[in-house]
Amino acid sequence: MSAVLEIQGLQKTYRSRKGVRKALDGFDMVVEAGQVHGFLGPNGSGKTTTLRTLLGLIKPNGGRMAIFGREVPEALPEVAGSVGAIVESPQFFGNFTAHDTLSLLADAGGVDQGRVFEVLELVGLRDRSKDRVKTYSLGMKQRLAVASALLKNPKLLILDEPANGLDPGGIREMRTLMRTLAESGMTVVLSSHILGEIQLICDSVTIISAGRRVAAGGVADVLAQHQTSSVRVRVESLADLTASAGALREIGAQVVVEADHLMVSGVAQASAITRTLASRGVFVSELAPIAVDLESVFLELTGTAPVDGAHRQVDQSAMAPAVPNGGWGL
């Protein structure tokens, strides 16, 4: 596969009365052709700054960027016709209908008017296309924004929180649409806080924290790198939890006692757990390996997991080192 989007060492610094803030601190990112690529990070991590810089809306302080192998922002006039994007919350004229909005955009971009009906169908707005946008819910406006980004039938589609305001059915429809677009040859970059959806839909991910890349690669590969050997153990009687924990520690296991179960790690074979507890007259009702998910990996890498009794502030994400093998490659 060839790279559709490449970012190397991207830097963006903001100066204010409070001093200098590095929004991007040598950020790297690569997206291969035909993929759905998840771009993840906590609020204030640099996601939107990256997208705005890539699209020429912000001038970087350093680094390199390329779309379809052409250096941007210099080559943006040449590649812009093949890029569709939503960055932050889209704005529309409330008194226009969805059809009028897309028709005007099609005229401005030299797009055939037949494409307007196609994209309205794709995003599920066909039956409401004659209604004024001011009557639309947040989710419907988001569908309209996606439709506007699809008008040019782009080769690269960049979507910032496309599921914002959608109900569960709408989120599933959006997921199906993204996969269909990728299967047709379009490359999709998807920024979202709905990590379960990202895990379901994306082929690969990049995670950013404090302006630096902290993870990148195939979704399965990123999860595998953080897979644990922990096992959840439930016993028939809660009264046996403490004694069970002690017995397992005697065989070298690391045990955390939760309200109604044990979290056990450091045991080569799960059968050692059942044998040890059975020898103490304790019967196991559940023995389940803990599968890591994208949310837990994200919280670990960005340092944004909730802490009891603390109120994490925006921008308090992990200052983790950049992942190895920086540069153009993953």
What does this structure look like?
- This is Putative ABC transporter ATP-binding protein.
- Pfam families: ABC_tran (PF00005).
- Keywords: ATP-binding, Nucleotide-binding, Transport.
- Residues 5-235 form the ABC transporter domain.
- With 330 residues, the protein is an alpha/beta fold.
- The chain folds into two domains: 3-225, P-loop containing nucleotide triphosphate hydrolases (Rossmann fold), CATH 3.40.50.300; 231-289, Alpha-Beta Plaits (2-Layer Sandwich).
- The protein has helices at 47-54, 76-79, 98-109, 114-122, 138-150, 168-183, 195-201, 219-225, 241-250, 271-279, 294-302; strands at 3-16, 19-32, 36-40, 62-67, 70-71, 83-86, 156-160, 187-191, 204-209, 212-218, 231-235, 254-257, 262-265, 284-289.
- Strand 9 (204-209) and strand 10 form a beta hairpin.
- The longest helix is centred in the middle third of the chain and has 16 residues, at 168-183.
- The protein is elongated, with a radius of gyration of 24 Å.
How is the main sheet built?
6 strands, mixed
Which CATH class of the largest domain? Alpha Beta
Structural class: alpha/beta
Tell how many strands the DSSP assignment holds: 14
Q: Strand-residue fraction?
A: 25-35%
The helical percent reads 25-40%
Fourth CATH level, the homologous superfamily of the largest domain: P-loop containing nucleotide triphosphate hydrolases
- CATH topology heading of the largest domain: Rossmann fold
- What is the correct CATH architecture of the largest domain? 3-Layer(aba) Sandwich
Distance, first to last CA: 13 Å
Structural shape: elongated
- The helix/strand order is EEEHEEHEHHHEHEHEEHEHEEHEH
So how many helices?
11
How many structural domains? 2
Largest sheet, spatial ordering of strands: 6-7-8-3-9-10
Poorly predicted residue ranges? 324-330
Q: Which value, in Å, is the CA radius of gyration?
A: 24 Å
Pfam families: ABC_tran
GO molecular function: ATP binding; ATP hydrolysis activity
Family: Belongs to the ABC transporter superfamily.
Protein name: Putative ABC transporter ATP-binding protein
